[in-house]
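Sample 1 of the test manifest.
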Amino acid sequence: MPFIKIAEEYCKECGLCVEACPKNILRISEKLNVKGYKVVEQTEPDKCVGCAACAKVCPDAVISVYRED
Amino acid sequence: MKTVYEKPKSLNDVHFHYCPGCGHGVIHKLVAEVIDELGIQHKTVGVAPVGCAVFAYNYYNFDFSQAAHGRAPAVATGIKRSKPETVVFSYQGDGDLAAIGTAEIIHAANRGENITVIFVNNAIYGMTGGQMAPTTLVGQKATTAPYGRDPKTMGHPIKVSELLSNLEGVTYIERTAITTPGEIMKAKKAIKKAFQNQIDGAGFSMVEILSQCPTNWGVKPVDGTKFIKEKLQEVFPLGVYKDLSEERKGGK
Amino acid sequence: MAKEFIKGNEAIGKAAIMAGLDCYFGYPITPQSEIPEYLAAEMPKVGKVFLQAESEVAAINMVYGAAGTGIRVMTSSSSPGISLKVEGISYIASAELPCVIVNVQRGGPGLGNIAPEQADYFQATKGGGHGNYRLLVLAPDSAQEMADFTMLAFDLAEKYRNPVMILADGCLGQMKEAVEFKKTVRKEYNKDWTIGRGEKDHKVISSIDIEPEKLEQRNLKLLDKYKTMEKEEVLFEEYLCDDADLVLVAYGITSRVARSAVELAREKGIKLGLFRPKTLFPFPKKDIYRVSQKAKKMLTCELSTGQMVEDVKLNSHKDTEVYFYGRCGGVIPADLELLEQAQKVLDGKGVRF
């Protein structure tokens, strides 16, 4: 079961991960980080396939991706 | 638990100063991932340009030398000639490499300097706030080309990969982009090859990477990658422009 | 040790190799091209690096790169070429990188000509590039000192982690003289600050400080270095100044002519003396002051329209009469010409500077 971790303080609300996610389960939340950016959040974690497209496109290494064996 | 993706070891755990959606961040990660995978972190010396990436030495977790504007290939030459056992790369933007630093990049390439060059082409001057670059497209607006670049008076975008690939000294040149996860993986593969060439003593390798500058293009990040796909790649076609990596292994 | 009959430029090359030069980055420009030519032939023999760069700008930035790794590195050029390098030199001084920079001065300004001149004194001693930095500047007066000062320069560069300039001129560069190449014992200095050691404690070579307070600290640290240089590294020569009625102040090739003028004068019972700075920065301020108190009259002679004379005046006793005589454009005055000028000053017909 793949899952992701989001280092919210590094997010700059650029939205590249939202567009890249093949499952469309990422979106910009209403939650602000200390810099005032609305951080990304995962809508349906169980649909994540762990492809790490989000992690690849993220300019700030906000998203880490793991796979539970 | 298996890690599919994590911030590479060769990157310090600090915030990038880059704008939201800036391509530099993506490219920094790719270079760091490659250095981790090749296991050369403590042998690597990076050379930072003057431009948005001038602060790269804050982000990378290995030795760095910050060069004067345009002179990174010369600084890298000095380091490589002094300590051939190090892995030296210069990280430069289009203003640094293709404007003020044209002579340095051409001659480092012509000498077949055994270094790796990461050339970030975002067709604009970022750090200074959006001026025209040598790679700014015809018709593209910039603060110093407010009516769009006019080739009659401002010339055409410089195609660096094509220009340098005619030089005998060059071993490997590829132009890539960071528009989609797929393209990003191709860019990483090219970067890895460019570093491997240096380790193998195959000579001068450069990867040109089309990158987005949302702030100075005046677009949202997601539209930035679209601009690359639809406009930049038309003028700067992706692909391998020269590859003598195999033939020149162990040559230097 | 046997002496060798050798050109000043080549003496620099040979001495640099003896000092353990690891990398040389240069570019052709008359009247110093024998330095890269000599090193192009000799460096490969000792397994060291010679590289002719695409420009002086590239060369000084190669020096910046190499100096960051702590090896011994040198470049050489002449006046217009040094102008191209001063941005890089400012970076090198700010990042506190040891290196040796040779300027074999030629006629200026602009393209000028290839004849000798001393018109880069300001550029060499007052910074030349942007920012509060200084070069330690050594001024040889012979092929012997071209060799000796080259070896000294490498040590001083590492001692202070600062660029050291050898300020010669086309005459000294092209002149052949007998030189004894004395092997000096090489002192080792801490290199923990360098990059490329393959260590885990990573270092950054940089001249950037975004916070003004940090940049100020960097400037004050450099200032401390220059103050220490002023205390410990001043070099000069006094010749017959004790009883002199008029002291000629000159460096480099001009001091050779002035020395002859002093001797000619003495033969005629005219009491001239010569004060010759060997370091132009740090300038021999206290010694100029001491000599100027006794001599009452000082005639500075330069191949320029008057540059070092400003420092002579600045540091002379207030009652001392400071005079200047210079030729430029590549013209070198004869000893009789300087003697004539000295006589004019002694006869009260000199023009105060």
